[in-house]
């Protein structure tokens, strides 16, 4: 069962780690390329701030973004800002999200995210946790997938294998770190491929942050995953 209150605490902790790490940078570093193609670190920080506000909209029953074009324009607008402005915006927008998410309500209700995706309101804090943790890694400032909290890594692997489950372009696949195992891809009685490796590398492959080269496979090549 999803514990949204516990996830909100995890979001707060992850945000504090991110803010502390970014505060050690300078404005020149913020303008440098991130690990995401075409984005500077400033783009990531701007996206994280605007995503917090967008999830406030979701919880309040409003459209997540006015439009895809507006979302992109706001990130481009905010990306070049100086470090102190980026930090203040990220801190204040994170506070707005925590305030909205702390309001009592029906956490079992269905909410709508980008591109018509629907989910339980109770999963919104976890979705924010994903944004903060993975984009902290994307900044390329010393925080790696191996540094992610173990609970987060396991739950995000759960989430991503579930997301690809039933996908016609993904063969029936068993994913395992040697202790835990997940099933994904097309429905079948038995998996066609088994993918084995450390949880950080499994997560990196599933979320498109790593090419999966450290992973071992049995029964076929490493499946090519569709973009998220």
UniProtKB/TrEMBL annotation:
<keyword id="KW-0413">Isomerase</keyword>
<dbReference type="InterPro" id="IPR010872">
    <property type="entry name" value="MDMPI_C-term_domain"/>
</dbReference>
<dbReference type="Pfam" id="PF11716">
    <property type="entry name" value="MDMPI_N"/>
</dbReference>
<dbReference type="InterPro" id="IPR024344">
    <property type="entry name" value="MDMPI_metal-binding"/>
</dbReference>
<dbReference type="GO" id="GO:0046872">
    <property type="term" value="F:metal ion binding"/>
</dbReference>
<dbReference type="InterPro" id="IPR036527">
    <property type="entry name" value="SCP2_sterol-bd_dom_sf"/>
</dbReference>
<dbReference type="Pfam" id="PF07398">
    <property type="entry name" value="MDMPI_C"/>
</dbReference>
<dbReference type="InterPro" id="IPR017517">
    <property type="entry name" value="Maleyloyr_isom"/>
</dbReference>
<dbReference type="InterPro" id="IPR034660">
    <property type="entry name" value="DinB/YfiT-like"/>
</dbReference>
<feature type="domain" description="Mycothiol-dependent maleylpyruvate isomerase metal-binding">
    <location>
        <begin position="13"/>
        <end position="139"/>
    </location>
</feature>
<keyword id="KW-0670">Pyruvate</keyword>
<feature type="domain" description="MDMPI C-terminal">
    <location>
        <begin position="147"/>
        <end position="226"/>
    </location>
</feature>
<protein>
    <submittedName>
        <fullName>Maleylpyruvate isomerase family mycothiol-dependent enzyme</fullName>
    </submittedName>
</protein>
<dbReference type="GO" id="GO:0016853">
    <property type="term" value="F:isomerase activity"/>
</dbReference>
């Amino acid at each position: 069962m999803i514990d949204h209150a516990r996830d909100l605490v995890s979001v707060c902790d992850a945000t504090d780690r991110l803010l502390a790490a970014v505060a050690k940078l300078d404005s020149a570093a913020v303008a440098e390329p991130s690990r995401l193609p075409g984005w500077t670190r400033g783009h990531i920080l701007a996206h994280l701030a605007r995503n917090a506000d967008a999830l406030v909209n979701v919880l309040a029953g409003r459209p997540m973004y006015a439009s895809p074009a507006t979302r992109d324009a706001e990130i481009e607008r905010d990306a070049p800002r100086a470090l102190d402005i980026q930090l203040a915006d990220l801190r204040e927008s994170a506070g707005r999200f925590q305030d909205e998410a702390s309001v009592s309500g029906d956490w079992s209700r269905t909410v709508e995210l980008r591109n018509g995706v629907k989910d339980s309101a109770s999963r919104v804090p976890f979705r924010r946790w994903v944004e903060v943790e993975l984009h902290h890694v994307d900044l390329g400032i010393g925080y790696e997938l191996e540094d992610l909290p173990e609970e987060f890594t396991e739950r995000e692997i759960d989430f991503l294998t579930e997301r690809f489950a039933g996908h016609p372009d993904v063969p029936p696949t068993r994913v395992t770190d040697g202790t835990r195992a997940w099933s994904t891809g097309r429905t079948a009685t038995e998996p066609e491929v088994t993918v084995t490796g450390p949880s950080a590398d499994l997560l990196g492959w599933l979320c498109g942050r790593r090419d999966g080269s450290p992973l071992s496979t049995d029964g076929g090549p490493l499946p090519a995953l569709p973009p998220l």
